[in-house]
Design a protein that fits this description.
The complex is a heterodimer of chains A (731) and B (449). With 731 residues, chain A is of the alpha+beta class. In chain A, a hairpin with a 5-residue loop joins strand 17 and strand 18 (656-658). In chain A, helix 7 runs antiparallel to helix 11 (366-378), helix 20 packs across helix 22 and helix 21 runs antiparallel to helix 22 (611-626). With 449 residues, chain B is of the alpha/beta class. Chain B is built from twelve helices and 14 strands. Chain B has an eight-stranded mixed beta sheet with strand order 3-14-4-13-12-2-9-5, sandwiched between helices. Chain B has a two-stranded parallel sheet with strand order 1-8. In chain B, a hairpin with a 2-residue loop joins strand 10 (364-365) and strand 11. The longest helix of chain B has 26 residues, at 207-232. The chains are: A alpha+beta (731), B alpha/beta (449). The interface between A and B is large, with 100 and 95 residues.
């Protein structure tokens, strides 16, 4: 444990209850946590060196709970003095020594979440597999759905993974479909319209058709044939339309009369699947008074239908092309070894390769064999989990590092170049790494940082489930909510691609709008779908805080929530932790605005009157008031149901702000955005929160970036150079 | 078109075992395809349904105890099933209370609902609660059916960047826990549920192609199991636990292949695969309810859970005239209009329960109906959404299985653990345990033993 190691460096005395936890408890805890009416049913005064050890069997849970609370900074509460870091280090050193290893060890294993899985399969095999339609959703842990907390795998997951592996392998390496003829005799044919069934034929006497259901084994070119003869009458030959699922492939005239048959054919490109094939008689004719009785009635007689194909050569997939080259250059074994390296993101060992080879060789054809091996690779824990087997605390292997980098920056697998650098051990060089980070960020795949990282961190992904009240906000349909998300994503991506100064997240002169958003923002002259870059004329709007996605995601369906907006600003822009409301207080004590006799602002002022509420709400609410000039879907407003809007607020430090412009200035002067960003990036990259030590290191490293060089890219680089990022295990 | 009857006999002729209603398959037990011995009574099926954000208890609780004569407003939709209904008042989930863990009542309510255990307060990978009652049954009896259990819901994971007050989102979006740290992921797409129940390879697949496909899958599973074993040695204790979950899933798939090798499965006549997730919430619940009834009737599983919505869900109900969002309005502040809106949602959820019960009652099983062999536990881990209290929970038991004596309202002493009900239900399901969660004994008085 890092804290243990740190402690030992500082003080070579063995930690004991008396010299570690007890003084901390005395100074910070027992005022509330003592006696029969102890807060949280936790009487810490009763703890002694004997009772507060694991020898006392009931203690484990209490020790764990005390450790958790201290570690997360939830105790002592926000309005009490904090213990100093050295005291905490001593306390943890002792606590960690008490608890069994499995209680301290946190799982670090991460699995591919739905989005990572989908991107990985697309990048590796060029197969689109919509995981959202097949896999159960990933639960969010602390902030992101790639969190180690979400790495659990229920039966349903495993079932879907195995099925997905089979489907993906079949798409990547489709079975060879031989061309064949499927024939349908009269007994196997159905009909519609004026059709009479005879022994050897189906006779169409008036408008009608003869049809059969036929399986088309793959996308490709097929020929539809009809074997038939006709009764001639009038000045046209009997004409048959050859159709698939009612769509005509061609019309053909029938020359043969009874006693002979003729094959009419039409070809077309068809998609795989079961379809209806039919021959429709299109020019029925009947002239009962025509002198020649044999030329009075035009009919068509169908003897057989047939489907021939596929006629075109089987198209190569990206994977079959790769495979053909690999097999041309080497053996099956070497092809599987190269495939394994890409899919498992590391070289296979001898036993693994042998296992795959024997699996591949047990199949009927090499192609079937490789497909089965691909299924086994994709269904394996080595693909599904990001395995890091380097000893905890030691440097990651090159391959493990390549995987961390690619899933952080691309939410997908490392590419060939990263794997080659890993194999040569070059990723250990900070200079090479830095070059690679820049390369990965320039690549289009880094868009995942907007769609995955930012969308979750800044909260606009929640708009997927948001339901603004359609009576209050008739314009806020799904299309508008989607445009909002796209705007914020495009903005984030522009910040990344153009390496713009970090400050522009708070105040920028540009954004992206389509017609819907333009109307919402009051921008003129934008027509139609599709976002385009515009300069703000409403200068106050520029930056994250003026974006509709964020103003909407922090609102309730019928009205704004100054509390939620305040919390969003504190946590995401000011890097400040807002503790949850204390026990015994409703977590959302605001009554609904329209039902209560007071204005929303007056209701929130009530927070001031309660000591329990005021310590936090004095920080939250005034920030939210500054944003009251925007309604619950981000439109500017001067009035709400209660009357004229008041955007003034007095912040906890006494600063008076009025409106978004002044709030933005305040946030910029506060200068914590880079720290908030770095912390969120750490969580996303590592799948867990930083330990206290890691947090200190990160803060120092971020603070050391010279102001002019502060960009998203430089903060990402700092996160990638943290020892936590470069080393294995959870400290 | 083939007629229904001939299709069935055709399939039989082809050696396909249709997933038959329970008694019918028992009657056919001598046939070589099914090798079970017929039990003397129909098995008990258990269904657990969760409704989030509590309820307005004044409109929920019947005025009098004893025989249920007049149903209170919220329970009104259950009128047709009054004689099959037990209203259990006074039950408590003590483990959903803070006990020093502060706020987070929504997360704790859902996590404790079927586990009766206190969830560890963490947003990290070290989450831990307990094994839920449905999963205890699934673990003990699950091998008797094709699927051990079914876990369904209408909302996928919670999309937002912070869940309830420092608790991982998994706590609020799952009620079924296969292991103390492993939620049993729920399925929300009816089409996938149907496929899981009844699909068995391509339709035109012949016997040898099928045998080959199953064998291939088996060899793939052998291979990945070997991968997992060799990984085991290289991972830490906690990560090994994760890998165990994976291996458990692999074993379960193997079990299903073995069953598939003995008999084919096909959906019963008239059962159509749903096309996807319906737009309307009510329709979504109805379709899932239909699938649950079908799963029970075909004896595909005997235990299931359904979350009408995730705990803390802020779903708006414009169809009821409640556009505010459920969680938001559940903090009603004792404003009468707000309470009335919450009660509308409560009643709406109960009406969906009534529809599901109707679907169970509509299925004949021998001389009786499926409902006679079912127990549906319906409730919430929160009582009043405004106060987040966890005593006097809204809890119903619907069905006539397991020897319960329904048609009554029972008032239990304050703080009677909900776990006592679950402990007792376990016994009725044939999985007797000496304790479950924070149980203090068996729940008395609601049925014969």
């Amino acid at each position: 444990m890092w804290s243990c190691a740190l402690y030992l460096l500082q003080a070579p005395i063995a930690p004991s209850f008396e010299n570690s936890l007890e003084p901390l408890i005395e100074a910070h805890c027992t005022e509330c946590h003592s006696g029969a009416r102890a807060e949280g049913e936790l009487d810490l005064k009763a703890w002694t060196s004997d009772s507060a050890s694991l020898e006392a069997s009931a203690m484990r849970e209490s020790l764990e709970r005390v450790r958790d609370r201290l570690l997360r900074g939830e105790m002592p509460p926000a309005n009490r003095p904090r213990p100093d870091e050295a005291a905490l280090d001593r306390a943890f050193a002792w606590l960690d020594g008490q608890l069994p290893r499995e209680a301290l060890e946190r799982p670090s294993l991460r699995r591919l979440n739905r989005s990572e899985y989908e991107r990985t399969v697309l990048d590796l095999l060029s197969v689109s597999f919509p995981t959202r339609e097949h896999f159960p959703a990933d639960d969010v842990g602390a902030m992101f759905d790639n969190d180690a907390a979400s790495a659990g795998a229920s039966e349903l997951c495993v079932e879907r993974w195995v099925e997905a592996a089979e489907r993906i392998a079949a798409l990547a390496l489709p079975a060879i479909v031989e061309s064949r003829t499927q024939t349908f005799a009269p007994a196997e044919l159905q009909s519609e319209g004026g059709v009479t069934r005879r022994d050897g034929e189906l006779s169409i006497y008036s408008s009608g058709k003869v049809n059969a259901r036929c399986e088309f084994p793959r996308d490709g070119l097929y020929r539809i044939e009809v074997i038939a003869f006709g009764d001639l009458a009038g000045d046209e030959l009997p004409r048959l339309s050859l159709e698939v699922d009612g769509r005509p492939l061609g019309e053909r005239d029938l020359h043969a009369e009874r006693g002979r048959t003729e094959t009419l054919a039409a070809s077309g490109r068809l998609e795989r699947g079961e379809r209806e094939v039919s021959a429709r008689f299109v020019n029925d004719y009947y002239a009962p008074l025509y002198p020649d009785p044999k030329r009075r009635d035009r009919n068509a007689h169908i003897v057989r239908l047939a489907v021939v194909g596929p006629l075109d050569p089987q198209p190569a997939t990206a994977f079959t092309e790769w495979l053909d080259t690999a097999l041309a250059e080497g053996s099956l074994e070497s092809a599987l070894s190269r495939l394994g390296l890409r899919v498992w993101r590391r070289p296979l060992d001898g036993a693994e390769l042998e296992r795959l080879c024997s699996l591949a060789k047990s199949s009927a054809s090499p192609r079937d064999g490789i497909r089965t091996a691909l299924v086994a690779l994709l269904a394996s824990p080595n693909f599904l989990y990001r395995i890091e087997s380097s000893v905890s605390g030691s440097d990651l292997s090159g391959f493990e590092l390549a995987t961390r980098l690619s899933y952080f920056l691309w939410a997908s697998a490392p590419d060939q170049r990263l794997l080659e650098l890993a194999a040569r051990g070059e990723l250990r060089s900070a200079q090479v790494r830095s070059g690679e980070i820049r390369r990965l960020l320039r690549d289009a795949r880094s868009r995942s940082l907007a769609g995955e990282f930012a969308a979750q961190w800044l909260g606009w992904r929640a708009l997927e489930q948001a339901t603004p009240d359609s009576n209050t906000f008739p314009d806020a349909d799904e299309a508008l909510l989607t445009s909002m998300r796209q705007e914020s994503e495009a903005f984030f991506e522009a910040m990344l691609r153009e390496d713009r100064p970090l400050d522009e997240f708070l105040d920028a002169d540009f954004t992206f709008v389509d017609e819907r958003l333009a109307r919402l923002y009051g921008i003129e002259g934008i027509r139609g779908e599709g976002l385009r870059r515009v300069r703000w004329n409403d200068r106050e709007r520029g930056g994250l805080l003026g974006q509709a996605a964020i103003l909407t995601a922090t609102s309730n369906p019928t009205r704004t929530s100054p509390v939620k907006r305040g919390k969003w600003v504190l946590e995401n822009l000011l890097d400040s932790h807002v503790p949850p409301p204390p026990p015994g207080v409703g977590s959302l004590a605001e009554p609904s605005s329209h039902a209560a006799p007071r204005t929303l602002r007056e209701q929130l002022e009530l927070h001031r009157t309660s000591a329990d509420c005021s310590s936090c709400h004095a920080r939250l609410d005034p920030i939210g008031f500054a944003l009251e000039g925007f309604d619950a879907i981000g439109r500017r407003r001067a009035f709400d149901a209660d009357g004229p809007i008041d955007c003034r607020g007095i912040l906890a430090d006494g600063t008076e702000i009025n409106g978004l412009g002044e709030l933005k200035q305040y946030v910029q002067q506060h200068g914590s955005f880079a720290q908030a960003l770095a912390r969120a990036l750490f969580l996303y990259a590592m799948g867990r929160a930083p330990t206290r030590g890691e947090e200190r290191e990160l803060k120092q490293a971020v603070a050391a970036i010279p102001a002019p060089q502060r960009t998203l890219g430089s903060v990402i680089e700092v996160v990638c150079s943290q020892s936590a990022f470069l080393r294995a295990g959870v400290p | 078109m083939l007629e229904a009857v001939s299709r069935r006999s055709l399939l039989r002729g082809a050696g396909i075992a249709i997933a038959l209603p329970w008694l019918e398959s028992m009657a056919r037990a001598c046939a070589p395809l099914t090798r079970r011995t017929p039990p003397s009574v129909a098995p008990l099926r258990l269904l657990f349904i969760y409704s989030p954000n509590g309820a307005q208890m004044d409109l929920w609780t019947p005025a009098r105890t004893g025989a249920l004569e007049v149903l209170p407003r919220t329970l009104g939709p259950l009128e047709p099933w009054r004689s099959s209904l037990l209203v259990l008042s006074g039950l408590t989930h003590d483990k959903a209370r803070p006990h020093g863990d502060g706020p987070g009542d929504h997360a704790r309510a859902a996590a404790a609902f079927l586990t009766a255990a206190q969830p560890r307060k963490t947003a990290g990978a070290d989450l831990r609660v307990g094994i839920s009652v449905d999963q205890v049954v699934a673990a003990a009896l699950g091998t008797r059916t094709r699927l051990r259990s079914l876990e369904l819901g209408t909302e996928s994971a919670i999309l937002g960047n912070r869940c309830d007050s420092g608790y991982a989102c998994a706590y609020a979006s799952n009620i079924s826990w296969r292991g103390p740290s492993t939620p049993a992921a729920k399925e929300i797409d009816p089409r996938l549920v149907f496929e899981r129940l009844f699909s068995d390879g391509p339709r035109d697949e012949n016997a040898s192609a099928r045998a080959e496909r199953l064998a291939r899958r088996k060899s793939v599973l052998d291979s990945v199991r070997a991968d997992a074993r060799s990984l085991d040695a290289r991972l830490g204790v906690a990560d090994r636990q994760r890998l165990q979950e994976y291996l458990y899933g692999v074993r379960e798939l193997e079990r299903r292949i073995e069953a598939a090798e003995k008999a084919r499965t096909a959906a019963p006549d008239g059962a159509e695969a749903p096309s996807g997730i319906p737009e309307s919430f009510a329709e979504h619940v109805r379709v899932l309810g239909g699938l649950l009834a079908l799963a029970f009737a075909t004896d595909s599983t005997r235990v299931a859970s359904l979350m009408l919505a995730n705990e803390g869900s802020n779903r708006a109900y414009p169809e009821l005239g409640v556009p505010e969002g459920h969680h938001f309005i559940s903090h009603h502040g004792n404003v009468p209009e707000n309470r009335a809106k919450v009660a509308l949602i409560d009643r709406f959820h109960v009406s969906l329960l009534a529809e599901i019960v109707g679907l169970l009652a509509a299925r004949v099983e021998g001389e009786e109906t499926l409902l006679d062999h079912c127990l549906v536990v319906y409730g919430s881990g929160i009582s009043d959404g405004n106060r987040h209290n966890h005593e006097d929970l809204p809890m119903l038991l619907v069905g006539r299985g397991g020897g319960v004596q329904s048609g009554r309202h029972l008032q239990y002493p304050a703080d009677t653990p909900c776990a006592n009900l679950f402990l007792d239900l376990l016994g009725r399901a044939g999985v007797a345990r000496s304790a479950f969660g924070d149980s203090t004994g068996l729940l008395e008085g609601y049925g014969v033993r």
